[in-house]
Here is the input.
Amino acid sequence: MSNLHKFKLYDDPSQMEPLLPADHRLGALLEQAHDLIRKSERLSGWCPSGALPGLRLSLRAMNSYYSNKIEGQHTLPMEIEQALRNDYAQDADKARRQRMAVAHMATEAKLETQWLKWPQGDAAKVWSVQTVRHIHHDLFSRLPEADRQIDSTDGLQTLQPGALRELEVSVGRHAAPAAEAVPAFLSRWSSVYSGVRRGELQLVGMAAAHQRLAWIHPFQDGNGRVARLHSHMVLGQLGLTNGLWSPLRGFARTQEAYYAHLAAADEPRAGDLDGRGNLTEWGLIRWIEYVLGVCLDQVNFMAGLLSLNAMKDRMAACLAYEEKVVKLGVRTESLRALHYLFASQSELDRAEFKSMLGLGDRLASAQISALLKRGLLESDTPYGKLRLGVPQHALRFYFPQLWPEAEAQV
Here is the structure.
């Protein structure tokens, strides 16, 4: 972030127009958004909020992994799992990345708790400047000061959680708005996107807002992470993700396209056919197409993985592997009970679970203990109800290709 003398710094919020494509260019985007809403609602309707908590925890770990990867701060899935057990690496840089991954998971979980309390479509809160600053504050305040040291034009500085930047920055060919003008740009960003009508256009706005927030670059560091978490929050608060999918996986798996489309939408307008704003309208449209396409891909992928019949076959393969290869007490007789927990998305009393195993009481108790130790079952107390667990080692069976990097480590 240097050579700012080569760039003209933006100081007027009108310089980031257009914030949305013109009405006559929205048709194809609204069709994409309509398809996304229809498929997302179908998936959310099958798996209500709070169901399959083991899967949702794995997805949070996956999201943090992919967010780190996008930032070039690679953390292995096993290292995230170790960090969740408070087992950090001796290597200082690796431990720092582990702490960031755990912080991302915690912030994502907190956002999901918050948006459940907001009326669906509460635009004032979703798009407020305070919410954006809160995301940054919540994420980075979870890190020790040593992890928040960043290089700047003035030397090494400590990133202040939630604080707007006070220095000028450029990223690639883009010079961000002048630091003193950041509040005005954020206010304009909030005003426009909070006023977008509900439905398909709000999804178009979500995608556009992600790019324009990154363009403003309101914080000295962490802008990409905040923009992605905010998009995740918008989709969830609209009732479309239900904790079952996120665009973060898709962004990371198409990382070159993610950065290329972000940068292309930074470009100035290219002539009279490229909109009426200061920035390229076509670049913004292609970015929105890309984001909506990523979201659709993630919904379709998860819908396929959650098929009941296919899951039964995959569970059977997992249990066979446990019994014949791992040999830690898990038996194939658990299939019926485990598949019931998945299909019903509920919990079972231990006595009910035992009755579904078809084993004697002693063997059934031993089987529950083995399943709990392997993470294939979860319970809040030693004698509490049982629910389905989705440990990392079972992902390759239960949800193949969901998180290939985690599968490769088993």
Summary: The longest strand covers residues 149-152. The CA atoms of residues 240 and 330 lie 36 Å apart. The chain has a mean pLDDT of 91.
